[in-house]
């Protein structure tokens, strides 16, 4: 196991394409000398003890397809230049101490397939504009990565939380995609444009402070197999549009402020037969600890979200 810091001499490897010292005991700041490796396509530094801000030299690495910095001690803002990394397919910053808001510039990442900002200290709203995430809107076949890494037969290991389980992929293909913003301090509404991501496989925005209603546009996400909106402040009824998502196999809407009746559908009732997907919504008719399904059932207090009125 490697310990200490990444040696400065790595900066002499200007033709470097893959760098993967993940899963060691490396620490300190990620050295700026890596900016000389302008052909770098795959950078995996997860599961170490790196600290400091997001490395500024990364904006020079225009060929990056995979950037994984998870499980370190990085902090500060996620920089706006992240949107300039046009070849990025996988961006994983999970389990650090990044704060401030999610940069709107992620909408410039047309090739992005997997985005994981979970377990940080991010706050503010979810990005409203999502129309630029082309590969989450239109299905394409083949490997997620470009020719160089594929030609080297280099296995890319990627963890995704989907269908209630931690899934691990050694060969990442186009249908292995997802967005995970869980376990932050995000507020505001779920944007209407979320429905544009028609081929998204997994969406996890649980354990935040999101409010407002679940948008009907989610019903357009035909490829969605796993949806977790639990532990938020969402209100209103569960949109009936969810019942037409035939691909949906895992659903968690627990511990929020939902009301009305649980929608009926061809397979909706079987998504979570024990009711745990709806627990913790005291005004939701049909939830294990929710309201009774009659006309005299109590209703949640009327609240007004600032975002709804703007």
Account of the 3D structure:
It contains 2 helices and 22 strands. It has helices at 147-151, 306-309; strands at 3-4, 18-19, 25-28, 42-44, 49-53, 66-68, 73-77, 90-92, 97-100, 114-116, 121-124, 158-162, 165-169, 178-180, 185-188, 202-204, 209-210, 226-228, 235-237, 250-252, 257-261, 283-285. The termini are far apart.
Quick description:
Belongs to the RLP family. The protein has helices spanning 147-151, 306-309, and strands spanning 3-4, 18-19, 25-28, 42-44, 49-53, 66-68, 73-77, 90-92, 97-100, 114-116, 121-124, 158-162, 165-169, 178-180, 185-188, 202-204, 209-210, 226-228, 235-237, 250-252, 257-261, 283-285.
Q: Topology of this protein?
A:
Blueprint: E1 3-4, E2 18-19, E3 25-28, E4 42-44, E5 49-53, E6 66-68, E7 73-77, E8 90-92, E9 97-100, E10 114-116, E11 121-124, H1 147-151, E12 158-162, E13 165-169, E14 178-180, E15 185-188, E16 202-204, E17 209-210, E18 226-228, E19 235-237, E20 250-252, E21 257-261, E22 283-285, H2 306-309
Parallel strand pairs: 1-3, 2-4, 3-5, 4-6, 5-7, 6-8, 7-9, 8-10, 9-11, 10-14, 11-15, 14-16, 15-17, 16-18, 18-20, 19-21, 21-22
Antiparallel strand pairs: 12-13
